[in-house]
Structures are given as C-alpha cells and as structure tokens.
Amino acid sequence: MTISKSDISKTLPKIDDSNLSAAVDLSLWLYLDKHYTFKGCINISAKKYAIKPKLKLEKLLRSIIPESVFYKRSKEATKRRPMGERNGLYAVAHKAERHIKDIVNN
Question: Which H helix or E strand runs over 11?
C-alpha cells in the first residue's frame, strides 16, 4: 500500500509556526506524492519558507512519516542502476568512438 500526503496529513500534530507548517506540507507532497529525495524535499521546503535550522524540519518529518516508507524507498533505490554506472558506460563508449575516429583520420 502506498502512503500519500493526504493519509499522513490526517495524523499531523498541531504546528504553531505557520512557515514550519507550510514547509511540512510541501515536504510531504514532494516526498510522498512526487517521489523527490528526502533531503531534496527538505532543502526545497526550507529554502522556500526560510526554515532555520533544517534539522527541525527533518526531525518533524521523520516523526510523521512511518519508518516503513523510508525502508521501502531505500529498497527501491538499490534496484535502480547507479548514476555513475550509466555515465561510466557512456564515457567508455564515447572514448572508443573518438579512438576509432583518430585511427581513421590518420
């Protein structure tokens, strides 16, 4: 079962700071509905709503979002091919292509 922002927002504790409340709302939407990275959604929300320190927002989100969501997202992330591997394959192919062009042109 996938957890969305609307599921979590029903159980949100009352937050007095309006900027922090808006940042939590945005972070939940980015992380749960749009599948941004956890640190990425914290950075975006903290920048938009001027939350200092970001740790306050991160601790609040970690207490709200169930641990199973983090575990599931980390398991899914390990199944994808790492970014460096894709770039590395491109670099090798591009280097070989340039090498062939050098041989042919000489």
Answer: none
Asked if residues 38 and 74 have their Cβ atoms less than 8 Å apart, the reply is no
**Dist CA 46 CA 50 (whole Å):** 5
Rounded to an integer, what distance in angstroms lies between the CA atom of residue 105 and that of residue 103? 6
Rounded distance, CA 50 to CA 52, Å?
6
Residue boundaries of the structural domains of the chain: 5-65
CA distance 40 to 10: 24
The pair of three-digit structure tokens given for residue 37, joined into one six-digit string:
């990275």
For residue range 3-15, what is the model confidence (pLDDT) as tens digits?
888 888 888 888 8
Predicted TM-score (pTM) of the model is 0.70
Q: How far apart are CA 51 and CA 58, in angstroms?
A: 11
The C-alpha R_g of the chain, in whole angstroms, comes to: 21
Contact 33, 5 (CB under 8 A): yes
